[in-house]
Design goal:
The complex is a heterodimer of chains A (about 300) and B (about 300). Chain A contains 13 helices and no strands. With about 300 residues, chain A is mainly α. In chain A, helix 2 crosses helix 12 and helix 5 packs parallel to helix 8. With about 300 residues, chain B is mainly α. Chain B is about 80% helix and about 0% strand. Chain B has 13 helices and no strands. Classes of the chains: A mainly alpha (about 300), B mainly alpha (about 300). At the A-B interface, helix 6, helix 7, helix 10, helix 11 and helix 12 of A face helix 1, helix 6, helix 7, helix 10 and helix 11 of B.
């Protein structure tokens, strides 16, 4: 019997080594790379990061300086996205605007994660009165519909890029807090947590060793998806006049500046808006891909 | 059911109380304080003594809890004081602007539900086909677009280039089309995704397999067994999306220059007209919470399992 197997296959399957088991990380990465959408999103995001770092080298013109002789030009080889009434090159302003939008998205998420994540972790693990109070505070924050919370915070703090980042971060805390808290509550139900407690593990060890690994995956997914949302919120606040102020080349500000010229200079609002759409779409594609890769059960 | 309603109310009342405290504190956290916000409206420079007198006269030197109680006892009667900018009662300003926002929110919600439900149902029924992928791609594009940009694109295409629809204004259905579609389209994307997930979950249920095994027509299986159960979570979607819609009215009313509570709130935020900010923000928050309570109750009504948890 064994000889027949050897003859057919050329080697003995009986003595075939068992397949090497892949780590969870490797499996997840493999699933992520198989998802075309998330690969596309990831590559676009990488391109954005490169553009934002090398903006002074990539942008053909200064984003703030005025060139009166170049004013009101439609898109052309010399000015790919046209110029505004001051002669400023729209494409250069979009390129420099990448830095601002990525900062708003990333710092906003960092604020939300560091505050919401820590509170959610503590509330979920320890429960009790602290958890009740935290849930009540989250309900209060979530009672402000849409971007009204971010707008209210910016109205108190005043306009400006830093205040927009803080407003976006604070208004995003409830989402991160809830995800971390529910992941912790879910992880707490596992038998091995009880076993760890019974065997005398400290709370700190349980949290870092057993709870946190269960929280990482949903937090990564939410963080990725929320960068896009944070960019949208920041651009909306700036569009409405409460956030970043002109002449700073922020995408929302640029769309707002162009809205009075839709008839004569349609490109002023169109291209910065397109930049927002593509960036948010890329983050959503990547976030979706990460969710499917880190827990394929969630896809179904 | 009564216990469920009581439980929901016990959560809602402290939430609304908390929102009123947050809104009250906004005035006091503003740099320079409330008096400076009033002075800003006047435009003229005022001496420090006059400002101190104003603080005393307007009760801003009283302890915070006394000021809050004054604000709360008036707010509960619908009195938010007068606008620093126009001197008009804030309640009157909200009531004048309310019909515009209500029209926009209802029309936007209708469009979001029609489009979202259609895309979600079709996607679920044609799961893992090009139809499913296309619908979800369109849905994702919808929720990735900033509403202000979508609105401006509509204006550029339908008003400026084609001349089919008026850009701004309040009266008439034609003036509602673009704002409502802008509001509804971005929300439809999220709705479609949630509906698709709900439908897929129900389609996997044993009773659906049984219905098919019994030889029922597919249309009967979908309409009588699948949709009725898949629509239960859609009710929750309505609640969640209503907040997005309400927040979106701030942007849409600005883009299309429509008078509404959102635009009043924004103008107040821009000019630090704090009584108006307090009134409009509190009003919108109360409406949002009220809609979510109704959604919770209807969810419990539709799904008996929820009542008895």
């Amino acid at each position: 019997m064994a000889s027949e197997v050897v003859e057919v296959t050329g080697r003995s399957q009986l003595f075939e080594a068992s397949p090497r088991s892949e780590s969870y990380l490797t499996q997840s990465l493999r699933r992520l790379l198989r998802n075309r959408g998330s690969v596309l999103g990831g590559l676009f995001l990488l391109a954005l990061v490169v553009v934002s770092i090398f903006a002074p080298l990539i942008a053909p013109y200064d984003p703030i300086e005025i060139y009166p002789t170049e004013a009101r030009q439609a898109p052309s080889p010399g000015h790919l996205a046209g110029t505004d009434k001051f002669g400023r090159d729209t494409m250069s302003r979009i390129i420099f605007g990448t830095r601002i939008s990525l900062r708003v998205g990333l710092i906003g998420v960092a604020i939300a994660l560091s505050i919401g994540g820590v509170i959610g972790l503590y509330a979920g693990y320890h429960g009790g009165r602290f958890d009740v109070i935290v849930c009540m505070l989250v309900n209060i924050m979530l009672a402000f519909p849409g971007i009204l919370l971010a707008l209210s915070i910016v109205a108190v703090l005043g306009p400006g890029l830093e205040n927009v980042m803080v407003a976006v971060g604070i208004s995003s805390i409830p989402q991160f807090l809830r995800v971390v808290r529910s992941s912790v509550l879910s992880a707490k139900e596992n038998v091995y947590i009880e076993a760890a407690k019974v065997s005398g593990c400290s709370n700190r060890r349980i949290i870092f060793r057993h709870i946190l690994p269960n929280v990482v995956a949903p937090v990564i997914v939410l963080s990725t998806l929320w960068v896009g949302t944070a960019i949208l919120i920041g651009a909306s606040v700036s569009f409405l006049g409460l956030g970043v102020q002109p002449p700073t080349p922020e995408w929302g500000v640029m769309v707002s500046e162009g809205r009075n010229y839709l008839n004569s200079m349609w490109w002023l609002s169109t291209f910065p808006g397109l930049a927002i759409v593509l960036t948010v779409l890329a983050m959503n594609l990547l976030g979706d891909g990460l969710r499917d890769a880190l827990d394929p059960r969630l896809k179904e | 059911m009564r216990e469920y309603i009581l439980k929901q109310l016990m959560v809602t009342v402290p939430t609304l109380l908390g929102v009123s405290i947050a809104v009250f504190l906004m005035l006091h956290l503003t740099p320079g304080g409330a008096v400076e916000a009033i002075v800003l409206q006047g435009g003229a420079a005022i001496s420090a003594e006059t400002m101190a007198e104003m603080r005393e006269d307007l009760g801003f030197n009283d302890p915070l809890h006394v000021q809050y109680w004054r604000f709360f006892s008036k707010a509960i009667r619908g009195d938010f004081g007068r606008s620093y900018r126009t001197q008009q009662p804030v309640t009157d300003m909200i009531l004048q602007a309310l019909p515009g926002t209500a029209q926009l929110a209802v029309a936007g919600l209708a469009i979001a539900l029609v489009l979202g439900l259609s895309m979600g149902v079709i996607s679920a029924l044609r799961h893992n086909t090009w139809i499913d992928n296309t619908c979800m791609a369109v849905a994702m594009l919808g929720w990735s677009m900033p509403q202000f940009w979508l609105g401006l694109l509509f204006i550029l295409l339908f008003s400026v280039r084609l001349g089919w629809l008026p850009i701004t204004g309040q009266e008439g259905v034609k003036r509602l089309v673009m704002p409502a579609f802008t509001l509804g389209l971005s929300t439809a994307g999220v709705t479609a995704r949630l509906v698709r997930t709900g439908m897929l979950e129900v389609l996997r249920m044993d009773y659906v397999r049984t219905a098919r095994a019994k030889g029922l027509r597919e249309s009967v299986v979908i309409l009588r067994h699948v949709l009725r159960n898949a629509l239960i979570p859609v009710v929750t979607v309505v609640g969640l999306q209503f907040g997005r819609l309400l927040g979106g009215t701030v942007v849409i009313e600005t883009v299309f220059a429509r008078q509404g509570v959102g635009r009043v709130a924004l103008q107040a935020l821009l000019t630090r007209d704090m009584p108006t900010v307090q009134g409009t923000v509190l009003f919108l928050a109360v409406v949002y919470v009220a809609v979510n309570i109704l959604v919770d109750f209807s969810y419990a009504f539709l799904d008996p399992r929820i009542r008895y948890v």
